[in-house]
Amino acid sequence: MSNYDDNPFADPFNDGSVTQATSETDKTTMDDYNPFDSNNSSAMMQPSNPPPPFDYGSGSTNNAPPVVPVESKTSIPGHEELLRRQEELERKAEELQRREEAIAQSAYNARENNWPPLPSWFPAKPCFYQDFSVDIPNEFQNTVKMLYYLWITYSAVLFLNFLVSLIIFVSGHNYGEQFGMSLLWMLMFTPCSVVCWYRPVYNAFRTDSSINFFLFFFIMFFQVMTSIVMTVGLEKSGFNGWISAFTMGTDLFGVGYRILGYIMAVIFTAFAALSAILLKRVHTLYRTTGASFEKAQAEFASGVMKNPMAQQAASQAASAAVQSTINNPPSRY
Hints:
Layout: H1 2-6, H2 16-23, H3 27-32, H4 38-45, H5 79-108, H6 132-135, H7 138-170, H8 176-207, H9 210-232, H10 242-247, H11 255-288, H12 293-306, H13 308-327
Helix pairs in contact: 7-8, 7-11, 8-9, 9-11, 9-12
């Protein structure tokens, strides 16, 4: 290439390096080359240093780029609380719609009193209407049913107490006062417990009435105190509690009477504990219903004003005041 570099107008094919390369070419190989031959074409098309094949079957991810997880949602403060409140509102809306449908159906079928369930031939008729699935919301139905079963248990306990007193009295022991008082408590407490604390708590959960809640708490507190007195079982009180059971341990009573006395003491104890537990449970639910003392006062005032006797008394008082003003006009001086 020295001549080429010296003379830029010289023939490049006459350069020594080009002449040497063309003279050393294997003419026989070039003459025998067939471009349409599969062996030659594959040899010509394959690279001299091919890259290694990629292993698609292996589970190794050493050479794979790291996968960055993408969060589906951006956490919003208070989002879960809003969802919970929305679900609660939807549930209450469904419950309200169900109760409205039940009331609409009852408009055509008047709700007749069905409790206590008495036979048709019985001279007395049911006093109340009771249907947990219609009157009580779903979240309170179990509690109201438990209170209903508590009243049934209370009636059964009073009857068993009377029965034990009767057995001891008939056996010839000096147990007349105890027997008479047990009969009195059974006849008095059984219906009073329905009217004084069971029906108020039923109506409280049915209408969300604060005044009924307060009435239930007031009466049920004394019910728990009475249950404790029953458990103690003072002599001649009419309750066969622990003191009565220990008294039966003397030689005046047999082994069978002692066993009856201890059984009644245990039953009274269990009933007192169950009453206290349900009272606490109702109080916990009461605090979640939005009831309050101010609301109870407003309900009481509204109920008094809607009472026909109260309205008549207020009207008479107003008429008397106006008549007194007309008959005795105020002096100008």
